[in-house]
Amino acid sequence: MLKDSKAFSGFSVDDTAKARAFYADVLGLNVSVVPEMEGLLNLNITGSTPILIYTKPNHVPATFTILNFPVDDVEKAVDELSTRGVKFEIYDQENFKTNEKGVFLSGGPKIAWFKDPAGNFLSIIEK
Q1: CA 39 to chain centre
Q2: Contact of 110 with 102, CB cutoff 8 Å
Q3: 118, part of any domain
Q4: 82-to-2, 41, 95, 102, 106 alpha-carbon distances in Å
Q5: How many separate domains does the chain show?
Q6: Where's the VOC domain (predicted)?
Q7: Do the beta carbons of residue 76 and residue 101 sit within 8 Å?
Q8: How much is the pTM?
Q9: Are 112 and 74 in contact (CB under 8 A)?
Q10: Bridge partners of residue 48, in order along the sequence
């Protein structure tokens, strides 16, 4: 029944205007308004089904990574996004540390986490 379905994901924010500005202007993604549906946005990412962003009055930020963006060079992407105002998470736990830029280098691909204006976690991860 569902195996041929074109599933899509979605997540909530507290302010779609701020979300639209962040995802379009800061991250450079193609963001569109869902026609005739106030407060709904689609992230249109190449090779992916649209990702729905919706306003939720009692929004609570996700405590896990909701979107992972594969990139060729995490360090370069961190540098570029930092110039656009993105703040990367710095972790300094015994078994979980990032470098001073926020890049995790131990065990697995390089990855760096950051938050959208609603506090949801996103990442860039080296392919």
Answers
A1: 18
A2: no
A3: yes
A4: 40, 25, 25, 11, 22
A5: 1
A6: 5-127
A7: no
A8: 0.91
A9: yes
A10: none
